[in-house]
Design brief:
Elements: H1 21-28, E1 32-36, E2 39-42, H2 44-63, E3 67-68, E4 74-76, H3 77-83, H4 85-88, E5 95-97, E6 103-106, H5 111-121, E7 130-139, E8 154-164, H6 167-187, E9 191-196, E10 206-213, E11 219-224, E12 230-232, E13 254-257, H7 264-271, E14 279-286, E15 289-296, H8 303-310, E16 315-317, H9 320-327, E17 343-347, E18 356-359, E19 365-370, E20 380-382, E21 401-416, H10 418-423, E22 426-428, E23 434-436, E24 438-445, H11 446-456, E25 458-459, E26 462-463, E27 474-478, H12 483-498, E28 503-506, H13 512-522, E29 526-530, H14 532-537, E30 539-544, E31 553-556, H15 560-571, E32 576-577
Helix pairs in contact: 1-11, 2-6, 2-11
The structure holds adenosine-5'-triphosphate (ATP) and magnesium ion.
């Protein structure tokens, strides 16, 4: 492609609408433009990257035996009513009504539609296993669309769904996808990690997320330094605490004044007690029940663990009125002593806090010397805390957890029979019994993968595309080209194309500074600069975008295509699981 002919509107200034690097560079490199919140035009430069990611995904899905289909974006409410999700999904589901008053939604995912395909056209275990996928537009009315393609409202996802007649088959289908995902992110040239994940809105029993490692990632990942244990912090558990013996004599329960001291920090400073010796009491509304959750003062609660343990559909901190009613005290002074009529759950570490400081359920007061069973009850001990770097790892007796940031680009789930049972998707087994099929579902965000690649690979000047998903492999730049320089560059452009190289030819009549700045911004892996002086020496300058600084190779013109091909091959499939 000739730059002079391409719709490639690069921007010098960082647009104020973009908070994160990938969004800034996608706008500045002329890849995308905003149409409405979370809704984008993808311009030619952007689309080339998305198509590359799609191609890798498609090839690996096909290789794993999955078959491509195309399902509607607009899905009838009836299917969602059958699964029960029409009422469960909440406001992320964009609902629409047609001219006849019939209800539909824009598909945020397609479990219902795909289950409908299989229940209609598959009836025997002999027709299984099946894995069907599509690469298609999704719509989720995200509460906070942001970061460009990273969290859009309309976005392209590869979604695959597996159907098996029995549990070992379902296990094999999941494993095939897990391996396909490893190959996909490896082939994309990304540094990634597969982690155990919470199953969230889609349901199901077990899931793994594929994270692209980047300091700017929204997700935190805990991983063991001595074993393969890795989990999203939403789900991660530390090793269970070692039992601690109580002191020989326990302090008496004593109410003390703590005027206006509400936070753990304020109370522990005021009473001169370490935060580990305090207990935080949080009052939650879980569906229709009010519960109290206790964690050690220096720990943070993991609300996802609490919600999952309670099996609650929604969970949030109770409002002031509810909290005050339950505790008989103004906000900030809740504690477990004398707390009646609510279930009390406590994190495992609370069991070993002796002579604790807790809220006294009375304005401006706390108890010291609070001890389990003698002074307060706990109905259930469960793991409720958010893990931290340095926690003992559950993966190895010597291991310690570290926490890194990542961007979730893929998610694979074991769904079990949630949808097949609800929607009557059954097959006859070899005994002639009718059984619900066992499903899995497997997503990859195409645009998010491209954005994550930028978060992981950039410098101040712009993007540094990994070769496999770069919009072009070579940027051919001419400076003040006329006569023989122009003639040579035109011919080199044709020769590169003939050699199967994807080349963008910066043939614009611009100053060197402008061209080189755009080159850095666009992030094409190899830059060839053709100039009069070089040609006189019989060389072309080859600069690799990923090598910092201004260093370039002088490559003899007769070796040029060979060297370019060599570097392209070297740059393919360089991703690693880190
Ligand atoms: P998140 O926790 O980030 O909201 P999710 O758990 O809702 O993600 P899934 O339902 O598992 O996401 O969707 C599968 C994949 O689709 C994700 O791994 C991600 O790559 C992509 N994806 C999800 N939501 C968006 C979005 N709003 N914009 C772009 N890609 C998305
Ligand atoms: Mg989501």
């Amino acid at each position: 492609m000739r730059y002079s002919k391409m719709l490639l509107p690069t921007l010098r200034e960082t647009p104020s609408e973009a908070e994160v690097i990938s969004h800034q560079f996608m706008l500045r490199a002329g890849m995308i433009r905003k149409v409405a919140a979370g809704i984008y035009d993808v311009l030619p430069m952007g689309l080339r990257v998305l198509r590359k990611v799609e191609t890798i995904v498609r090839e690996e899905m096909n290789r794993a035996g999955a078959q491509e289909v195309l399902m509607p974006i607009v899905q009838p409410a009836e299917l969602w009513q059958e699964s029960g999700r029409w009422h469960q999904y909440g406001p992320e589901l964009l609902r629409i009504t047609d001219r006849h008053g019939r209800e539909f939604c824009f598909g945020p995912t397609a479990e219902e539609v795909i289950t409908n395909i299989v229940r209609r056209d598959v009836s025997s275990y002999r027709q299984l296993p099946l894995n069907l996928y599509q690469i298609h537009t999704k719509f989720r009315d995200e509460i906070r669309p942001r970061f460009g393609l990273m969290r859009g409202r309309e976005f392209i996802m590869k979604d695959a769904y597996s159907f098996d007649a029995d549990e070992p088959g379902a296990e094999a289908s999941y494993e095939a996808m897990r391996q396909a995902y490893h190959r996909i992110f490896q082939r994309c040239g990304l540094k990634f990690r597969a982690v155990e994940a919470d199953s969230g809105n889609i349901g199901g029993s077990f899931s793994s997320e594929f994270m692209v490692l980047a300091d700017t990632g929204e997700d935190a990942i805990a991983s063991c330094d001595k074993s393969r244990y890795a989990a999203n912090v939403e789900k991660a558990a530390a090793r269970a605490p070692e039992p601690v013996e109580p002191p020989a004599t326990l302090a008496p329960l004593t109410m003390v004044d703590t005027p206006a001291r509400k936070s753990i920090q304020e109370v522990s400073d005021f009473l001169n007690v370490p935060a580990e010796q305090t207990i935080k009491t949080l009052i939650y509304q879980a569906d229709n029940e009010v519960v109290a959750a206790l964690v050690r003062g220096d720990d943070e609660i993991n609300e996802i663990k609490l919600k999952n343990h309670l099996g609650a559909g929604v969970l949030f901190l109770a409002d002031d009125k509810t909290t005050e009613k339950v505790t008989n005290a103004p906000l900030g002074f809740a504690g477990p002593v004398g707390l009646k009529d609510v279930r009390i759950l406590a994190d495992l570490r609370v069991r070993y806090v002796f002579d604790a400081v807790v809220g006294a359920n009375s304005a401006d007061a706390h108890y010291t010397g609070a001890n389990l069973d003698r002074d307060y009850r706990v109905d259930e001990f469960v793991d409720l805390r958010l893990v931290r770097a340095g926690d003992p790892s559950p993966g190895d007796p010597e291991g310690v957890l570290r926490v890194d940031r990542g961007i979730e680009v893929g998610h694979i789930f074991k769904l079990g029979t949630k949808y097949s049972e609800a929607m009557g998707c059954t097959v006859l087994n070899d005994q002639g019994e009718e059984l619900p099929v066992i499903m899995g579902c497997y997503g990859i965000g195409i645009g998010r993968t491209a954005a994550a690649a930028i978060e992981q690979n950039h410098d101040d000047g712009g993007i540094i595309w990994p070769m496999p998903i770069a919009p072009y492999q070579v940027l051919l730049v001419t400076l003040n080209a006329k006569d023989e320089v122009l003639e040579y560059a035109d011919k080199l452009y044709d020769d590169l194309i003939a050699a199967g190289v994807e080349v963008l030819y910066d043939d614009r009549d611009e100053r060197a500074g402008v061209k080189f700045n755009d080159a850095d911004l666009l992030g094409v892996p190899l830059r060839l600069t053709v100039g009069k002086k070089g040609l006189a020496e019989g060389i072309v300058e080859l600069k690799q975008r990923r090598i910092p600084g201004k260093d370039f190779e002088k490559v003899a013109t007769d070796k040029l295509i060979e060297r370019v091909r060599e570097l392209i091959d070297e740059g393919m499939g360089t991703g690693v699981e880190a």
